[in-house]
Write a structure and sequence with these properties.
The chain is of the alpha+beta class. It has a single domain, classed as Aminopeptidase. Helices cover 31% and strands 22% of the residues. The protein contains seven helices and seven strands; from the N terminus they run E-H-H-H-H-E-E-H-E-H-E-H-E-E. The strands form two sheets. The protein has a four-stranded antiparallel sheet. A three-stranded antiparallel sheet has the order 5-7-6, with helices on both faces. The longest helix has 13 residues. The chain is globular, with a radius of gyration of 16 Å. The N terminus is likely disordered.
Length: 207
């Protein structure tokens, strides 16, 4: 069955000043503040920092290296190494880091095909429930066209009500729910715990 949804604009002018930027050292101060907020929740890897070997102190000390590592995750060489790129962008509002999204143009692993999808996103804790989640997904879906994607799979955990609402507000068309394997990781590296993963599709029409 073909499941398609067109991107809708849920913002109605909300957060029109937001932009989706490639990681850059100029956002160091607000990014480290946001990373500290994630760390207090135990979710520092919402920024990929833990995955790349950085804690908050090292981010402060060696931010340029962290930015370089993030950019490398989107390089073509990663397709040869691990089967897919992870192209990271930062949501910025009036020069301040608000959140992160990533686009995986190649669903090059069984995990991505089943559970991960093309897009991941997170909003720093101090900026949640303010409409930024809807905006970051909208902008990221628009950016997907630059990678030649005609459709995008976006997923969320069944118990992640805020993320589900963000996806549906942007016009995601529900396809199915998949019971996660015990060994599968959820967001921020949490264990699968037999949670169901909800799968939504977006059609990406050309401009």
């Amino acid at each position: 069955m073909t499941v398609e949804a067109r991107i809708t604009d849920p913002s109605h002018g909300e957060h029109d000043t937001c932009t989706l930027e490639v990681p850059d050292e100029c956002y160091c101060s607000s990014f480290v503040e946001g990373a500290s907020e994630f760390a207090k929740e135990g979710h520092l890897d919402s920024t990929y920092a833990s995955f790349l070997g950085f804690d908050v102190r090292r981010l402060q000390r060696d931010f340029g290296a962290y930015v370089d590592d993030l950019r490398d995750m989107g390089s073509a060489s990663r397709v040869r190494q691990v089967g897919y790129r992870d192209c990271v962008f930062w949501l910025v509002d009036d020069g301040t880091y608000v959140g992160q999204s990533s686009i995986r143009p190649e669903l090059g692993t069984p995990y991505l095909i089943t559970y991960g999808g093309h897009i991941g996103y997170s909003i720093r804790p101090s900026h949640r429930q303010r409409g930024y989640g809807r905006r970051i997904l909208q902008l990221t879906l628009e950016r997907c066209r630059e990678f030649g994607l005609e459709r995008a799979l976006v997923t969320c955990d069944e118990d992640n009500t805020p993320s589900r609402r963000i996806i549906e507000a942007n016009g995601g068309d529900f396809e199915s729910s998949m019971l996660m394997d015990d060994i599968a990781a959820r967001a921020e590296g949490r264990a699968g715990e037999r949670v169901r993963k909800l799968r939504y599709w977006f059609e990406l029409p050309t401009a």
